[in-house]
Design brief:
Structural class: alpha/beta
Keywords: Plasmid, Signal
Largest sheet: 6 strands, mixed
CATH architecture of the largest domain: 3-Layer(aba) Sandwich
Radius of gyration: 20 Å
Distance between the termini: 34 Å
Order of helices and strands: HEHEHEHEEEHEHEHEEHHHHEHH
CATH class of the largest domain: Alpha Beta
Helix content: 25-40%
Protein name: ABC-type nitrate/sulfonate/bicarbonate transport systems, periplasmic component
CATH superfamily of the largest domain: Periplasmic binding protein-like II
Strand order of the largest sheet: 2-1-3-10-4-11
Number of strands: 11
Low-confidence stretches: 1-27
Number of domains: 2
Pfam families: NMT1
Strand content: 5-15%
Mean pLDDT: 90
Length: 355
């Protein structure tokens, strides 16, 4: 774990003045993409899962520009790299673009996908510390407990939604600020540092496999938690060459989503087994948990939901509420879906209204 990085991230969270800074203008210039990515263009991308998918599927051969891959993703790591001008595109969930706006980092979401049945296939489940596995079985049981909380990440927003759904407030629990990267949350649960923490990805299976015999348990939240984005700093999108390359990457990202839907066993071997060191059985469990992922041709619904999330977080943190239109670059809106053929497993055909 990079302790210096996490100390710096927590310092940013604690010390920045949330004065309602608008990271970007509400309207982007209607600048069309270049017809062709200029020779010599380089994109630095932090999207490790898609990288492995592109390599395994052969889609990586369709890249007509150079990519320098960074083995990082998620809000804290990618936003820190953006601030250092060391990264052009990152893979994140719903919250980082909101938090970045409140901390004076101008960014835009440039791609979006979701799970076909998000309630049946949540990204996160709440892990329960082994000592309390038999006591905490529902969201209502969160009262009086210590909950891992990451203000600038999707897991933090999920904690707030879970409390709201259970009729609880922040005063009814103890929120323990911890970054949710890597294995921080499973380790904190196992050590009894917190009672409850949202777990995602391989950490779900690993946590139960390692500590289930000691009493560790999971709690389902039955809330929508599935937004997945590519995002980029505004200065990258203002560069015509990099913007054109980003547009091409979004198209391949959508095709990679389709490939995972259609080739689950190959994906399990390429990513979960070879890269994440899981067993094939653990990989299959992770794929089953994810379900089918789809790319919509319209962002209207996600922007409306995103705006509601901003309002929830603004109330909890004292920051300025704003419209999510400020943090989506609509020039990219139809690129992902447009790269997919009619009938594609990754093409969203109807809007889901789950909250």
């Amino acid at each position: 774990m990079d302790h210096a990085f996490f100390r710096h991230a927590l310092t940013l969270l604690a010390g920045l003045s949330f004065s309602g800074f608008a990271a970007t203008s509400p309207a982007l210039a209607e600048t069309p993409f270049l017809d062709k990515v200029p020779a010599g263009t380089v994109l630095r991308i932090g999207d490790p899962v898609t990288q492995k998918v592109l390599e395994a599927s052969g889609l990586i051969d369709q890249l007509d520009f150079k990519v320098e891959w960074a083995n990082l993703s998620g809000g804290p790591q990618t936003s820190e790299a953006f601030r250092a001008k060391a990264l052009d595109i990152g893979s994140v969930a719903e919250i980082p673009s909101i938090h970045a706006t409140w901390t004076n980092l101008p960014v835009r979401n440039i791609a979006y996908r979701e799970r076909l049945d998000t309630i049946a296939h949540p990204i996160y489940r709440f892990g329960v510390t082994p000592a309390l596995g038999g006591e905490i079985k529902s969201l209502a049981d969160f009262r009086g407990r210590r909950i891992a909380y990451s203000p600038g990440q999707a897991q933090g927003a999920l904690v707030l939604r879970a409390l709201e759904a259970a009729g609880l407030t922040r005063k009814d629990v103890t929120l323990v600020e911890l970054p949710s990267t890597g294995d921080v949350y499973p380790v904190a649960l196992a050590a009894g540092q917190v009672d409850i923490a949202p777990l995602g990805g391989p950490n779900i299976a690993r946590y139960i496999e390692q500590y289930g015999k000691d009493g560790a348990a999971l709690v389902e939240h039955k809330l929508r938690d599935d937004p997945s984005h590519l995002w980029a700093p505004q200065w990258v999108l203002d560069d015509p060459a990099k913007a054109a390359a980003a547009a091409e990457y979004v198209k391949l990202w959508a095709k990679a989503t389709e490939w995972v839907n259609d080739h689950p066993e190959e994906f399990i071997q390429a990513y979960y087994v070879k890269d994440q060191n899981l067993t094939p059985e653990q990989g299959r469990a992770a794929v089953a948990q994810t379900g089918i992922q789809v790319v919509p041709a319209s962002w209207d619904e996600v922007i409306a939901r995103h705006t509601k999330t901003i309002a929830l977080l603004a109330e909890a943190t004292g920051n300025r509420p704003f419209s999510a239109e400020e943090i989506f670059d609509r020039r990219f809106e139809k690129l992902g879906a447009g790269a997919l053929a009619p009938g594609s497993s990754a093409l969203k055909t109807q809007e889901v209204t789950q909250k």
